[in-house]
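for the writeup, i need someone to sanity check this before i put it in the appendix. the sequnce is what the collaborator sent (i think, or maybe the updated version? ugh). structure was predicted straight from it, no edits. if anything looks off just tell me and ill rerun, i have time this weekend
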Amino acid sequence: MDRILHLLTAIIVFVFVLFITFYTTRWVAGFAKKQQYNRNIELIETFKIAQNKHIAIIRVAKDYLVIGVGKDEISILDKLQEEDIDLKEARSANVPDFSALIDKARLRIKNRNDSDGGAV
């Protein structure tokens, strides 16, 4: 009886810790998201050239800049006009479609289970 009581207590404490962790994470993410939207700097698009080298398009206030990002330096390569950038495509490329990712993962799991003969 004593062991069952200890097990139930451990399960309740574990669920409570998970609950607190979940809501703390949501609160911190919401706080970070609010701060990000009030900024004058936005990453529009990035492209990896080599291991530690990227080209990025950023918006700083109302200016759009093409920058080169290396391991230890950042260089301004060019200044762009807003009409030169396809903002709809660029912004949607930075935001992953999570429903598509979940569907893809479900399909992989289903295919794996089917190839294993349905064993989990």
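The chain has a mean pLDDT of 83. Strands lie at 41-50, 53-60, 63-69, 74-80.
thx in advance!!
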